[in-house]
Amino acid sequence: MNKKNALTLILFIVLTVAGGNLVGYLSIPGAWYEGLQKPWFNPPNWIFGPVWTVLYVLVGIAGARVFIRERGGSLTRLWFLQLALNFAWSPAFFLMQRPDLSLVVLLGMLVTILLFIAKAWNRDRPSALLFLPYAAWVSFAGCLNAALWWLN
Prior knowledge:
Layout: H1 3-26, H2 31-34, H3 48-69, H4 74-95, H5 99-123, H6 125-151
Helix pairs in contact: 1-3, 1-4, 3-4, 3-6, 4-5, 5-6
């Protein structure tokens, strides 16, 4: 890997991890969230930070790979779209206190993630594979979001 590609990789990882952490910090769950009726499968709050950090690293690596291969191509655009939707979810859910709106955002994010995987499968299989745990977690998050909306 040359220096330019290494710098791109570092920047994409920093963008996703730092951006996700910033959005999370600005959207800290408060009394409203604590007062919600939770489904039986709601994980403990402490699990979200470590899981998202690992996922953001994987997403950042995939983003760097597709950016290096095809700057401005359809995979790069899908990558940035899923990240924008990802970063929009926490404010919609925690700040606006809108489980319904955040579920719409999350569904859009999941569709974008799945499109990324499908398009990357033949173009850059490692990037597609890096997105599989992300798709699984966002699917679970969608079930959790839908349950919170339904119960409350």
